[in-house]
Design a protein that fits this description.
By secondary structure, the protein is α/β, with parallel strands linked by helices. It has one domain. 21% of the residues lie in helices and 22% in strands. The protein is built from 7 helices and 16 strands. Strands 1-8-9-6-3-4 form a 6-stranded mixed beta sheet, with helices on both faces. A two-stranded antiparallel ribbon has the order 2-10. Helix 3 packs parallel to helix 7. The longest helix is centred in the last third of the chain and has 19 residues.
Length: 293
């Protein structure tokens, strides 16, 4: 695959063992995502959703609402759309996401243990120009490398279609792929945040999908914006792993908003009254990770 997103790799596990005081003693290196002169995904982009396994209608609606929220014409501060507008600063203008086809694979036709070739095959079942095909696997589907990675993105050989895979980690590794809505497997055992949509697995999917969508439009063919080796790049959001609000440090997501009625934590308002927690994104104008709050 052209690019792999490791949301909870050994790197972040090691960092989680460093407290804020010790971490402050480590000299911070400038964060610069170099542009490698490749094509970016700009303009109207269709996002096709391929659901592998059983998802409830509510779970599907949360994901659809999130994607629709990103390119809303109404983008006030603190909205998911205002978070997404940071991608406009990555050369050549805006990337407007539009929900396209939804394909349900509830019969587990490829089984419940998938490899990379299965994910590519599923993504290839939807033909659409200027599109991102998103494969989402249900909580009872095991994917090769799941938990050491929470999702991936890449492109077809002809570079006509980009694809993403994100797994629902509710039953397999919520302490890695659904943090901060679940206690981490390693590091400080701080109380988890309450998921804004009441579903730890799906709210974790939103975090990982947000990361991968941003990585896909700014580095679709592995020659866009990234830092480090092309085989394991740090991209628009993965370069800011673990930061959701101001004051964040390893093991602490930062200060975020709390819904007074439910106690749920969030930082972005979305479509149909939804609330989401989105990670910080690297801002090319400031060369810094920019959380919404």
């Amino acid at each position: 695959m052209a690019s792999i997103y490791h949301y909870a790799t050994s790197f972040i596990i090691l960092l989680s063992l460093i407290g804020p005081n010790l971490g402050a003693l480590v000299e911070q290196q400038p964060l610069v995502l170099k542009y490698h002169n490749g094509a970016l995904l700009k303009g109207n982009i269709t996002v096709n959703l391929i659901w592998y396994g059983r998802f409830t209608p509510i779970q599907r609606s949360i994901v659809v609402d999130f994607v629709q929220s990103l390119s809303s014409r109404w983008a006030p501060p603190g909205s998911a759309a205002s978070w997404w507008k940071t991608t406009e600063k990555y050369k050549s203008g805006a990337s407007n996401l539009v929900v396209g086809r939804q394909v349900l694979h509830e019969a587990y036709t490829l089984g419940k243990s998938l490899g990379n070739r299965h994910l590519v095959a599923l993504a290839g079942k939807v033909n659409s120009l200027k599109a991102i095909n998103v494969v989402l696997t249900a909580s009872d589907v095991a994917v090769a490398g799941f938990c050491s990675r929470c999702g991936t993105h890449g492109s077809t050989q002809d570079k006509k279609t980009a694809y993403i895979w994100v797994g629902n980690s509710e039953a397999q590794c919520p302490g890695q792929c659904a943090w901060p809505f679940h206690q981490p497997i390693y590091g400080p055992q701080t109380p988890p945040l309450i998921a804004p949509n009441g579903d730890v697995g799906i709210d974790g999917v939103i975090i990982n999908l947000a990361t991968l969508l941003a990585g896909t439009v700014t580095n679709p063919f592995n020659n866009g914006y990234f830092q480090g080796p092309a085989s394991a790049p740090l991209e628009a959001v993965s370069a800011c792993t673990g930061v959701f609000g101001s004051g964040a440090y390893p093991g602490y997501p930062g200060r975020v908003l709390v819904d007074k009625a439910t106690g749920a934590s969030y930082n972005a308002a979305g479509a149909n009254g939804r609330k989401f927690l989105v990670p910080a994104m690297w801002d090319p104008q400031t060369s810094a990770c920019k959380p919404l709050v």
